[in-house]
Amino acid sequence: MTQFKNIPSPCFVLEEQLLRQNLKLIRSVADAAGVEIILAFKGFAMWSAFPVVKEYIAGATASSLSEARLCLEHMNSRAHTYAPVYDPAEFTELMNCSSHITFNSQSQLKRFQPQLAQAGHKISAGLRINPEFSEVETELYNPCAPGSRLGVIAEQLPDQLPEGLEGLHFHTLCESGPYDLQKTLAAVEEKFSKYLKQVKWLNMGGGHLMTRKDYDTKHLIELLKGFKSRYPHLHVILEPGSAFAWETGFLKASVLDVVENKGIQTAMLNVSFAAHMPDCLEMPYQPRIRHASFGPVGNKPTYRMGGNSCLSGDYMGYWSFDQELQVGDSILFEDMIHYTMVKTTFFNGVQHPSIGIIRENGEFELIRQFGYDDYKNKLS
């Protein structure tokens, strides 16, 4: 791994050539299917790479004010914005950065829709729907689980959608294939077909992992073209998160120590799964390591990877290597540019809580507030 010696450790590393390969494929799908595909910042928000992204796509979706500002400032376009709930204190500025705003509930739509009419530019209002169907197995990532807080189910809607509502949005997939989308569309049409005839656009959300090697892009294109033939008036939007930066880079870590307990060897790293790769523990999944194999392999040296935090569960394992690991060896965790890199900073661009103290005299002292610059500067 001598070619990586000049890279500091730890370090997230994007490989531009791999990013361009993904962007070319995504653009080709959009052109062939006649749909709009935009970037989801919750999955990839490395704005120093946006000049490359903008060569292939023009827009992005935001889930917070910080993400919407990033879209306006560095994609040079207003965002397709959706958040589960909007803060009234931020909404005016959010409108300035948005071309579309999708609401999670009818009550939020009713509350904020009058303000959309007062915006200095046209903003298209949308509503998130919940088709009550998803094949996502991990409960943490399933937006259609019973009692989900995300989206409106069909039985809650009146026969005629509220005046001024121009679009519908669903998101049921997670690193899924086109056949999962096909099943979701069947559920959407079964429950919401009469509403699709009342709107101008449909956002099919994210989770379309079209850059994965085994993904059937031809089926996706035909599926989208078939849907558009049934609803020719609809402008169709997809906003994948993982697909843009899928397998485009790695996280470089270093071995600082090797410890042994009851025959289990753990390589102690200068990174943390809890702090730097939380999705590995949430999803959960075991990432690939360059030049290593999953699990015990013959007589090869086998190690767990141990994080450098004090959390007892801050480890993953096992991987086998051709040679015993030594202090100073590099460990390259593959495919760490989508989601993992964002979750290390400010996931969804959500506002971090301020910090303050109530002094002995009962007076409150604000110590620090976090804002857009904190979010942006961690993603450059």
Provide a descriptive summary of the structure in words.
The protein is α/β, with parallel strands linked by helices and 380 residues long. It has three domains: 2-7 and 248-343, Lyase, Ornithine Decarboxylase, Chain A, domain 1 (Beta Barrel); 34-245, Alanine racemase (TIM Barrel), CATH 3.20.20.10; 349-377, no CATH class. 29% of the residues lie in helices and 22% in strands. It contains twelve helices and 18 strands. It has helices at residues 16-33, 50-53, 65-75, 88-96, 106-116, 178-196, 217-230, 242-245, 273-276, 278-282, 340-343, 372-377; strands at 11-14, 36-37, 39-40, 60-62, 79-82, 98-103, 124-128, 165-169, 201-203, 235-238, 249-261, 264-269, 293-294, 302-306, 315-320, 330-334, 355-358, 364-368. The strands form three sheets. Strands 2-10-9-8-7-6-5-4-3 form a nine-stranded parallel sheet. Strands 1, 11, 12, 13, 14, 15 and 16 form a seven-stranded mixed sheet that branches. It has a two-stranded antiparallel ribbon with strand order 17-18. Strand 4 (60-62), helix 3 and strand 5 form a beta-alpha-beta unit. Helix 1 (16-33) runs parallel beside helix 7 and helix 6 packs parallel to helix 7.
CATH class of the largest domain: Alpha Beta
Low-confidence stretches: none
Main sheet: strands, sense, barrel: 9 strands, parallel
The number of helical segments is 12
Question: Could you estimate the helical fraction of the residues in percent?
Answer: 25-40%
Task: Identify the quaternary structure here.
Answer: single chain
- What gyration radius follows from the Cα positions, in whole Å? 23 Å
Give the CATH topology of the largest domain.
Answer: TIM Barrel
CATH superfamily of the largest domain: Alanine racemase
Q: How would you state the average pLDDT, rounded?
A: 93
Shape: globular
- Straight-line N-to-C gap: 26 Å
Number of strands: 18
- In the sheet with the most strands, the strands line up as 2-10-9-8-7-6-5-4-3
Domain tally: 3
Name given to the CATH architecture of the largest domain: Alpha-Beta Barrel
Strand content: 15-25%
Secondary structure class reads alpha/beta
Order of helices and strands: EHEEHEHEHEHEEHEHEHEEHHEEEEHEEH
